[in-house]
Every structure is written in structure tokens, then in C-alpha cells.
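Final report, closing paragraph on structural work. Over the funding period we assembled a curated collection of sequence-structure pairs, and we close with a single example.
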Amino acid sequence: MGRRGEDLAHRFLRRQGYLIVARNYRLSAGDAEADIIAWDGDALAFVEVKSRSTEAFGPPERAIDAVKRAHLLRVAREYTRKSDTPWEKVRFDLVAVVLGEPIEIRLFKSAWLG
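Its predicted structure, as stored:
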């Protein structure tokens, strides 16, 4: 389910004009990952994708906790250092995917601050 949600989010973001530069980017230590890294205009977005089969236990966007945000922050710091991207261009987005009938995809730009 997670992989399908990421594939749907990837296509959705491309249709929204995002330029995807990485998928499933892992820290060199291997202990944290960003689902998608993409340029949206002049902003470098680190995108977390959350998928659910239904919203019976709440919407997928509620599944982002402080630990996950800290992991994404570490990934963003490493990636921007390696790519020489100014921190001012960094943004954290969230794509929520509900795999029901019909499929629902919601984008939350600047879902939290780094």
C-alpha cells in the first residue's frame, strides 16, 4: 500500500509542476528517509507521503509525528549540504493518499517548519 501511495503521489506532484530529483532518499547512515525530494519553483520540497486504505481511523496526514519530522529534518540538512542548496529554499510538504473508491490525494505545502 505504501509503495502504491508513493507512486500515485509522485505522478500527482509531477502534474502539479514539481520536478522530482529523488525518491526514497536515505541518509548515509541509513536511519532516515525522505519519500520524495522535488523542486517546486524555487523551493526544494522534502515530501512525506502517507497512505491509508480508508480514513476510518483518521486521515493519513495525522500520522506524522515529531520523530518523523526530526528524521526528515536530518535528511534535509544532509541533502542541502551535499547539493549546496540554501536552507532558505527548503520546505516540508505532505501528500496524503486514501486508496478508496475514488482515490483521494491531498497536498499540504509547508506542512510544518524545519
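Residues 6 and 84 are 26 Å apart (CA to CA). The helical segments are 2-15, 66-83. We thank the funder for supporting this effort.
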